[in-house]
Amino acid sequence: MKTALFPGSFDPVTFGHLDVIKRAASLFDNLIVGVAENPEKNAMFDMRTRKEILRGVCSPIPNVKVASFRGLLIKAAVRFNATTVIRGLRAISDFEYEFQMAMMNREMNLKFETIFLMPSPQYSFISSRMIKEIAKMGGDVSAFVPESVVNAIKKQY
Ligand code: PNS
Question: Which residue puts its alpha carbon closest to atom 16 of ligand 1?
Fold first, then answer.
């Protein structure tokens, strides 16, 4: 059984993330969506909300589980029994950071592989950072994120 880990902040999850989740779930027996706990990042949604939203949107996909992790990704991957990490690649601009992270992780654990999946072009410009900015200014983000995120934003503001 091959298990992959898709790590991220998911603050909040977007249609782009969901597209990558569906693609990864079709390639692996099990997919763990790992929500990173990073106290230094000023998250819009707390961990409970992020996981709750993810569990809701992933529920139709039977081989996907949602879990949180803190600390090093390579350690979390071992804990989750995953030898492959999935990351989404939207544009060339993502590449430098992703390449660095993948190489660093592999250097720390040679068994570790990163696979990049590209979301559909219609999602290639969506980022959680922009969703947060638009949401904070009262803009409509319903074209870019699941309904549960829109509701969570309404609740928060
Ligand atoms: O959605 P994001 O914010 O782009 O996800 C980044 C994430 C959580 C995957 C990355 O920051 C990470 O792996 N954090 C865990 C700490 C770690 O392992 N850092 C070293 C990476 S080389």
Answer: 72
